[in-house]
Amino acid sequence: MPEASISALIDEVRAQFQSKFGTDPDVIVAAPGRVNLIGEHVDYNDGFVLPMAIERYTVAAARKIDANTDTPDTAEVYSIDMDDTLTVALDDIKKGERGFWGNYVTGVLHGMVEQGAAIAPFQAVTRSNVPIGGGLSSSASLEVATATLVEALTSTSIDPVAKGLICQQAEHDFVGVPCGIMDQFASVLCQKDHLLLLDCMDQSFQHIPFANPDIAVLIINSEVKHELSGGEYAQRRSSCEKATRLLEVDSFRGVTMEQIQAKRDAMDPVVFKRAKHVVGEIARTTDVAEALKSNQWDKVGQLMYASHESLRDDFEVSCKELDVLVELARATEGVIGSRMTGGGFGGCTVTLVAGDKAAAVTESICERYEQATGVKPTAFVTRPARGAHQVV
Ligand code: GLA
Predict the structure, then answer these.
(1) Mean pLDDT, rounded, for 335-352
(2) Given the CA of residue 43, which atom of ligand 1 is nearest to it?
(3) For the segment 107-139, what is each residue's pLDDT rounded down to a tens digit?
(4) Are residues 201 and 223 in the same domain?
(5) Out of 81, 183, 250, 268, which one is annotated catalytic?
(6) I need a surface site. Which of 42, 97, 218, 239 has the fewest CB within 10 A?
(7) Atom of ligand 1 nearest to the CA of 343
(8) Ligand 1 atom with minimal separation from the 180 CA
(9) What is the pLDDT of residues 143-181, one digit of tens each?
């Protein structure tokens, strides 16, 4: 039995498949979005990240079609969300225009074929309830759903790390966002009731139990859209590279605050601030992972606030609306900690709340956020969900 959060999507995708293609799909897969508890903008700096999958998925259904001599080998993918059909020539996979949603799918098909997948012609339908542009990895969930669909259609399973890397490469080469590995790895690797502690240097990972019924994970969407391909993300990466060159190290891993302080005078002040965030955030992430093991919730909360402040003041990827949400959370009884999550420039905050207060806290923050900004937020509570899998 699929979880309740996927069932409605499955029904919708199946019905749409039948009406579009006049038959049932052979396979149905699901890949979740993610929320990152802490470890922001450190995945491309060889740091640690601590995401979990959320109960919001991209579901894809497909059926192989008989290759016949009249039609070329194509994959046809209809997105219910975009109300648009992507047609891919499987023997000559090319990316579409910049900004085209289909590039996420095409990029993954290209990567899978390069890795040796023998993809026969197929028809597919996709549907997602991961909010787009909310910093919850709607893109990664579509990429990982595509890779999982190919596995299901070809009755093969590829190594999860290789699968995450194919999806990340698709985002680099076909979408044009030089993202790190967190989002795709989270969508592939996460387990129900666990956080994923991912070491982005060697790509090793641990599943950390996170199923305390007294703690709820609240996600509030500022409804301010972020756009990572807008260039800011690439600029942050490039500032980090400047810092490591100056520090004469291969990456930030192992770099201390003392080391960056010692080079402060030689560094552009902006580059210094970026470096300070990265060094602090890598330490905060391992500290949270430790504090979680011993249920030190106050400490977890303080580290989340510190992460937000660092992203706001030093890495400069927050925005007014996210800051308002975090400050409102901080002033609300029952809140343990809160911070922006994901790439930034809008999107969501992640807030840990005492379980019995979750409904009241959500209502209170949302009401006051709307009063303060004039924007109506959306919010939901989620448990750590299961990573990508075949449902049918
Ligand atoms: C985006 C990227 C990730 C990561 C986060 C920031 O979500 O896709 O790789 O860098 O931003 O932590």
Answers:
(1) 97
(2) 10
(3) 999 999 999 999 999 999 999 999 998 999 999
(4) no
(5) 183
(6) 97
(7) 11
(8) 9
(9) 999 999 999 999 999 999 999 999 999 999 999 999 999
> How far away, in angstroms, is 185 Cα from ligand 1 center?
11
Count helices and strands (H / E) in the chain: 11, 13
Amino acid residing at 98: R
Evaluate: CB of 183 within 6 angstroms of ligand 1: yes
Q: Dig out the tokens for 297 from the structure.
A: 């919730």
Cite the beta strand spans of 106-203 per DSSP E: 122-128, 194-199
Q: Which residue's CA is minimally distant from atom 8 of ligand 1?
A: 179
Into how many domains does the chain fold?
A: 2
- Residue 103: which H helix or E strand, with range? helix 102-114
Q: Please name the residue whose Cα sits nearest to atom 1 of ligand 1.
A: 343
183 is catalytic: yes
One domain, residues 184 and 270 = no
How confident is the model at residue 130, as a pLDDT?
Answer: 97
111 plus 252 within the same structural domain: no
Burial string for 122-159 (b: 16+ CB within 10 Å, else e) reads bbbbbbbbbbebbbbbbbbbbbbbbbbbbbbbbeeebe
Nearest to 349 by CA among 331, 373, 366, 374: 366
Domain range spanning residue 29?
Answer: 3-210+386-390
